[in-house]
DNA sequence: ATCCTCCCCTAC
DNA sequence: TAAGGTAGGGGAGGAT
C-alpha cells in the first residue's frame, strides 16, 4: 500500500496542469493567424484502422459537404450546419458526462429518498465514526471501449475524436500504459502523440458508457442503500451502519462483481469521510483498494501535494505555490484566519480542514436541481446578429426541452456569452473559442417558465444588452435557475385562472408572505383587507379570505380613502350610506378638493377618447362594467376642464415633461396620501436614485410641492420610482393575483367593497412599481401578461379575451395600463393568429 | 446582516 | 480538422 502511495504522489506531481488555456492561447496567438475561411476540402483520411472501423460520423460528412454555401464561412461551425447544436451535443463527451446525472436520476428515482432515511443525525455526532467507500472506474472511457480487446490491455490507448498527429482534438481518457508516457485527459491528441507515437486512439462509444454505468450502479445499489452518485463512473457509499460487514471485504466483493459484469476494473478507497475516501481511491488506482484508517490520515496527507485534494484546482494550486505551499503538511502551517483572509471564509475553511483530513460532508444528501442550462463554446462563428439570434433560439429550445425533461420551470434566466478578447487571434484549437471574456446577464421573471417563446423573448432581451459584435462571439449559453416544480406550477396556474377565481368560493384562512407585506401595510391601515389573495409558498395555491362585515368608519385610513379613484370611493361611500363623505368633510379642510381628484388634464382625456373610440368598434358586447366605465368617463370629462390649466401651469418646478427626472414621475397626490412609512420608503428610494434635486433632506418641502398638484388623479399610476429589484420581485411573486384582480374588476357581480379593495390593492401595488430607463417593472408586468397569454392560449381562448378586455378597460383609466396594453396587444394578436388562424378583432366581435 | 448579480473555480 | 458541457460552490461588491 505504501508503494501505491508513492505512485500516487508521483503522478499527482506530474499532474501539474495541462489545461492552462489562456496562456496557451496567448502564446500561440500570433502563430495561428490562418484564416479558417474556405476550408481545404481535402478530407484527411489519415485515420488508423481502428478508427476507420468505427461507426462513421454522418455529421462530419454532412457538414463538410455543406460548407460550399457560405463564402466567408469557416468550414465547420454554426454557420455551415443547420442542425449544429443538436449534432454537437451528440458528439460532445463533456455533454455526455454533464448530462449523465439527469439520466441517472430518472433511472434510479427511488434512490433519492435515502436522505430521509434513518441516517438523520447519526453522522452528525462526533462520537459515531463512519465508514465511507469511494468507487471509481479505472480509465473509464478507454476501459469500456477495449473491454473485449485483451490484446490492447497493455498497450497505450486513448479515447479521442481524432487520430491525427497534428490534431487539436482532446484526449478524453487514457489508459494507464498511456499515462506512463505522460498522456492525460484534456490533452490535444497531437501532444499525446508526440509523447507517445504508438498511442492507439479509439473513438467514443457513448452508448456503451451508459450501459456500463448502469451495470455499475446496479451493483452499487445492490450492495449498499446509501449511494451518492458523483459521475457515470464514480460514487460514494456510506457503509457506516452496514452491520457486520468488513468494509474491505465489501469493497472486494463490489470490485469483483464490477469486473465480472462489465469487464472493466474499478478502484476503491475506504476511509472515515468522503475526502479521505477519495484520496484513498487515488492511491489505490489502478485496479486497487486502499483503506486509510483514522490514525494514518496524517501520515498519508503530510506529503500529499495540495493539488491532489479535491477542491484544489490549478488556480488555487498556483496561488498556494506562490506562498511556497505545495503539500498538505505545509498548508497546515497556515492559520485558519490567514487562509480565510487570503481565500475567503469558506474556501479558507476548506483548505484548513482538508489539509487535516477533516470533511463533514455526508453521503447521500440529495440536493434538488438548482439550475438547468445549455451552452456551446465550440464551433460558434457568426457573421451577423441574425446568426446569433438564430443560434440563441436553438439554445432556448434546448433549455426548454431540458426543463420539461426535468419537470421543472425557471424563474431566472441567465445568458452567457464568450467574447473573443481583442488581443486574441484565431484560437489554437480548431474551431475553439480561444481566449475569451466571459460575460453574463440574468433576469428574474414574473413567473417560472419552460416556454420556448418566453425564453426566446428573454434571451433576446438579454442578448441585446451586450451590444456585442456578432463576429466576436465564440460561445453562448442559456441557463434557467430559481427552479420550481412544473406540476405545482401548472396547478398553481390553474388556481390562478380567471375562471377558477370566479368560481371559487370564499375560503377562510390564508398564509401571509413577504410578497404581500407592502400591500398589507396599506390594508392594515385601512381595515379594508376584507379580501386578500396570496400565493402561499409551498403549493402556489391561491387562498381567499372574505369578511362580510365592514370595518368601522373610524378604522378607515383617510389618506388611503382619499387616494382611491372616484368611482371606487363612491362605491365605498355607498356602502357606508354616504357617511364616508361626511367623515372626510369633517376631517379634511381641503375636502372640497376631493371631488376634484378625478380630474384629468385635457391631453390625457383626449388620449382616452381616442382610445375609446378605437375600442368601440371592437367591443360590441355590452357588459355591466361598461356602464361603470361610461360613468367614470363622464365624470372624468366633466371635471377635466378646470384641471387642465392647473396641470399646465407648471406648479411643479420639476414637472417639465421633457425631463425624465424621477420627481416628475411621482404623483404628488399619491405621495401625500400614502401612509407615512410608505412615503418614507419612497422618498428614501428616490433619494438613493440619482436625482439631484431630491437630495435635500427636507421632506416637508417635497410634501408641500406635492400638495400643490394633488388633484391630478391620472398621474397616480405614473408614480414610478427608481429600480428596486426587491420590489419587482416581490410584486412579481404576487402577480398571479394581478390577473385575479383583473378578473375581479371585470366581474360585474363583484360586491363593491371587494371591488374597491381589489382596485386599491392594484393601485397601491402599481404605485410602488419601479420604472427606470430599463423599465424593469414595466417589462416585468408585460412579461407576466405575455407569459400568461402563451400559456392560456393553448387551452382557454375565452380567458384570453377576458384578460384583454380587462386590460383595455384599465388602459382607459391609466396611462401605465395604456402602455402595458400597447406593449402586450401584439402578443395577443400573434397568439390568436398562430393558434386559431384568425384575426383578434374579429374574434373579439364574434364573442 | 442578507440578499443579488456577475463573475471565477472545480469536478467529471 | 472537431464536437472546450454542466452544475454547484463561492467570492467581490453593491443594494437593501
Ligand atoms: N477531462 C476529462 C475528464 C474525464 N472525462 C471522462 C472520461 C473518463 O473516462 C471519465 C471518468 O473520469 P475520471 O476522472 O474517472 O477518469 P478515468 O476514469 O478515465 O481515469 P481514472 O482511472 O483516473 O479514474 O470522464 C473526460 O472526457 N474529460
Ligand atoms: Mg474513473
Ligand atoms: Mg471518475
UniProtKB/TrEMBL annotation:
It is found in: Cytoplasm; Nucleus. InterPro entries: DNA/RNA_pol_sf, DNA_pol_Y-fam_lit_finger_sf, DNA_pol_Y-fam_little_finger, DNApol_IV, IMS_HHH_1, Rev_trsase/Diguanyl_cyclase, UmuC. It is an enzyme of class 2 (transferase). CDD domains: PolY_Rev1. Transmembrane segments: none annotated. The keyword Iron does not apply. Pfam families: IMS (PF00817), IMS_C (PF11799), IMS_HHH_1 (PF21999). Its cofactor is Mg(2+). Its EC number is 2.7.7.7. The keyword DNA damage applies. SUPFAM superfamilies: DNA/RNA polymerases, Lesion bypass DNA polymerase (Y-family), little finger domain. One of its GO terms (molecular function) is damaged DNA binding. Residues 132-313 form the UmuC domain. GO terms for biological process: DNA repair; DNA replication; error-free translesion synthesis; error-prone translesion synthesis. Keywords: Cytoplasm, DNA damage, DNA repair, DNA replication, DNA synthesis, DNA-binding, Magnesium, Metal-binding, Nucleotidyltransferase, Nucleus, Transferase. It catalyses: DNA(n) + a 2'-deoxyribonucleoside 5'-triphosphate = DNA(n+1) + diphosphate. GO terms for cellular component: cytoplasm; nucleus. Belongs to the DNA polymerase type-Y family. This is DNA polymerase kappa. It comes from Oldenlandia corymbosa var. corymbosa. The lineage of its organism: Eukaryota, Viridiplantae, Streptophyta, Embryophyta, Tracheophyta.
